[in-house]
Amino acid sequence: MGTELLVVSELFSIFVVCFVGVLLYLLPRLTRPDIYFATTVTRDFRDTTDGARILRHYRVETVVHSCIGLLLVLGSARIGTESALLIGLLWQMIGCFTAFYRARGRTRPHAVKPTSIREAEIKLREQDLPGGWILQLGPFALLIAAAIYLQLRWADLPAQFPVHWGFDGSPDRWTSRSLTGVYGGLVSAMVLCLIFALLGTYILRKTRRVRVSGSEGKGESIFRHRMASVLLAAEYFIALSIMWTAMLPLVGPPGTKGVVWMMGASMTFMVVIVGVMAATGQGGAAIAGSQKASLEDSRPVGDRTDDSFWKVGIFYVNPDDPAFLVEKRFGIGYTLNFGHPGSWILMAVIVLVPLIFALAR
Fold first, then answer.
1. Element holding 311 (H helix, E strand)
2. Confidence (pLDDT) at 345
């Protein structure tokens, strides 16, 4: 079984590096039309000679670094080390970030000031959560049901059981039959699902509108709803994954078939979610882009944030902005305003809750 698991893990590592490489290759064309490499530009800049040249250099560098990352994954996996994926991804992410940063530097001389015209909503924003309250409560019900089942089978749980397996299939991390050992993962998953649910609600009800009217306003509404739906799907995936892991002490090691099913589910989930996001585009740009913009729409709007508050083009830091979440400038979805105290509280909760349970085992 050890050799089989090694092959499965190697294939999964290869998939992740290739998947990330393709995603980073495509991202510059998925942003809002007047945001290019985290810089506000004219709406047609990306199609100019300079814009195309910047994109071409970025993509060449991204492909090179992704190929090096893939070679590192293959080389590390051959010697059976669990750091294979980390080594390859680390090189890939650092190299591709360097490519992005260089492209941003080439774009900044072409930066423009966005229009000062603002749009306001004159009606209440739609607030219906994806799937309604029944689907929203589903992940929590699954985790609670798993906890109840484990409590009923408490006597059948072994005194010591593994919670992690190495590349050769051998257990290398153990825990005991205790409250933290048995329920720690379920509680951590519940906290993470709660955070995702709150973020989805915030996206629908509180995030800043960039465009309100026309095709771009409609596309943005669809974008917000899909992002909330993606978060809900992530909640279900987390809940089901942790439930499966929590049941292993009763059913035994996952085995090669179980690992294959889990990795296959993970890969499928990643592909489907990214496919949905790519079809939407940042801020609904892919939806609105299929319709002709009016003269007023042709003015650069950006994302209603100033370029100066984007550190290295990735991190938004503006203590004077009350927004907790803002649209990403490179990527699809939302990112934290690191000038908002709530962002640091959220990050602390995400890091500390699983860490506390891990140390308490």
1. strand 310-311
2. 93
